Structures are given as structure tokens and as C-alpha cells.
Amino acid sequence: MATLLAVLTLATSILAQADFTGTGTISVWNSSDWRTATPASSLGCLSPTGKFIAPSTNAACGLFTRSDTYPYPLSTKEGNCTFDDETQERNTESYHGSQDHAYNCLKPFEADVNQLYTITGFPYTFLCSGDVDCYFDARAVPAPGSSDATSIWPFRWGSQQLGITPGHTMLQLVWNKIADVEVEKRAVAGRVEWRRGAELREVEVMG
Fold this sequence. Notes:
Blueprint: H1 2-8, E1 22-30, E2 42-46, E3 52-53, E4 64-66, E5 74-76, E6 79-82, E7 104-106, E8 126-127, E9 136-138, E10 152-154, E11 169-179, E12 184-188, E13 191-196, E14 199-202
Keywords: Signal
Signal peptide: 1-18
């Protein structure tokens, strides 16, 4: 509860996506308190379809681009990303989040508004959704280096369930900005290269 109240104190500092722009990857950290979270808490990243994965190489992580045109959708090569895809599984074990659908990126979907944002004052670019909901929920943590892919939902709490659903893991999503514009990603000789026009460089991804 103290963690949630601490986050709410930042509500008046919401930015107009000042740090959450361009192209990047999204790391997944094991965290229930943004004040103590560090890259050492990293468990993996989001895949091109918006699923939680723990690959052996960052080349498998999704490359996300936030549009600079309203409604600023976040997308990957698979399409726009959303919590509103009703074909995705619900978080049925959560008392207050049982109607939430898992995050997903798909081409047919046209976003009404970007559902993720960041808040000024964070030590890292943590992503939030909804009404200052800066934590997320996963039923399972994928095994490191495996091909497992796990759904994520917004973390919900209320009078009937104050904490994370028993057996689930509370997470934070972290934006790793790579470029101001969309770039091309490819794996070359065991490393990840990012191409922007004629410029080619290798970028280390946090967590």
C-alpha cells in the first residue's frame, strides 16, 4: 500500500511523453517499488507481440516505436499494441483485474490512444497505464533462455485484494530508447545491430 501511495504522489507530474518517444525496447523488471528497482531486477523484455519473454539474446526483444502523431500508438512489426484486444486471455485469477485482457500487438488493431506513458521523477523510464498504474501482473515468469512467452496485465488492487494475486509476480516495464525515429533491427554474428538510414551501430540494452 505504501508503494502505491508513493506512486500516486507523482500524479501531478505526468509528462506529455517527454522521455517516452522514438524507438526502443521494453525491459521487464521484478519490482513492487520503483524506489528500489534497478537493472539487476531485470527478468526479460517484451516480445514483438507484447508478451513477456526471457531470451538468451536481446535480438529476440521487440523493437517498439511510439508514433509522434496523435493518438501516439505504440507499435512493433506485428502492429499496434493494446490491452483492448478481446481475443487475448483475461487475468481471471485477479479479483479486481479479472476483466482485463493481456497486452498484445497486432496489425488489424487501430489504437484510439497510446495506453502507456511515463512520469517525471522516476530514476528510470518506467511505463504506466490507466490512472497512474505503474505496475504490471504476470501469472508466470518465463524460464531464462527459453522460448516461453507469458501474458502481462495491468496490476489491479482494491479493498478485496490489496496486493498481487497469490502465485503471480508484480512487474515494472522500462523503456530503453534507442533512436528518435524508427530504426531497423537485425542480429549479426551474435550481436544486435540497429540501422538508422546509413548509420549502423550496436547498442547495449539496459536489463
